[in-house]
Amino acid sequence: MRSRPVLLVLAAALAVGCASDAPEDDTGAPDTGDTGPVDTDTDTADDTDTGDTDTDLPPVDRDGDGAIEGDDCDDTDSAVYPDAPETWDDVDGDCDGVVDGDGAWAGDIPMLASAIYEARRYNFELMCPFVGTRTLGQLSFTITCTPDPADEDAQRLLGATLTITPADPEVSGDRWEDGVVFTSSNGWDSDGDGTIDWSAFDDADVAIAMTGVSLSAEGFGGIARE
Predict the structure, then answer these.
(1) What is the dihedral of CA 219, 220, 224, 226, to 10 degrees?
(2) Strand locations in 48-174, DSSP E?
């Protein structure tokens, strides 16, 4: 009669040991009593495995703009997502990798120059290629005029080449307006004024002017993003 408590204790211990050896269900389904590794997705690999990246989790859209993290270049701003309307705000709003008007620009600028030499006026019509780059609030460009090599008057008064560059490279928004420098291969230079107005993110209008007593020049033309 005294041996029965001992047998009951032994049986209980054996039952506990068998229960601890039972496999734990960790397939992602609710399992009360499962204290094993956690698998928050459904790939059967627990989160502590180095190869488990939980790619089965639902995609995340933190700013609620309809573009998931990874596709959205800024998932903290609901106005920024692929194919969003682009605005002049120095931000890549449509996630195309280009900020506003940044990029390479080119076009031809017709230029009319007028010079007075020995009491005689000379007029020259020039076609001057524009090559420039806008990026991160900086604008660099060169407008290069090449007078007719066979025109001795143009070569004497303007030079073999006449280049125009910006005096200040800073640019913001859809307009640049500042001074320019005319530089002749004959060794002289003169100040002028210039504006570039972006009518769209891929098109802009250029205006250049130099006003002087003996020499003046004026040019208008369009450029496009390459």
Answers:
(1) -10
(2) 103-117, 120-135, 138-145, 162-166
Residues 6+ apart with CB under 8 A from 198: 88, 101, 174, 175, 204
Contact 45, 39 (CB under 8 A): yes
* Sign of the torsion angle spanned by Cα atoms 44, 47, 53, 58: positive
Under 8 Å CB-to-CB from 42, ≥6 apart: which residues? Answer: 27, 28, 56
Report pLDDT digits (tens) over 33-47.
Answer: 555 555 555 555 554
pLDDT in tens, 74-96: 877 888 888 888 889 888 888 88
In contact, 167 and 208? CB cutoff 8 Å: no
Instruction: Quote the tokens at residue 210.
Output: 């130099």
Question: Is the distance from CB of 189 to CB of 161 less than 8 angstroms?
Answer: no
CA 152, CA 133: separation in Å to the nearest integer?
A: 34
How is the chain split among helix, strand and coil, in percent rounded to 5? 10, 40, 50
Contact 93, 87 (CB under 8 A): yes
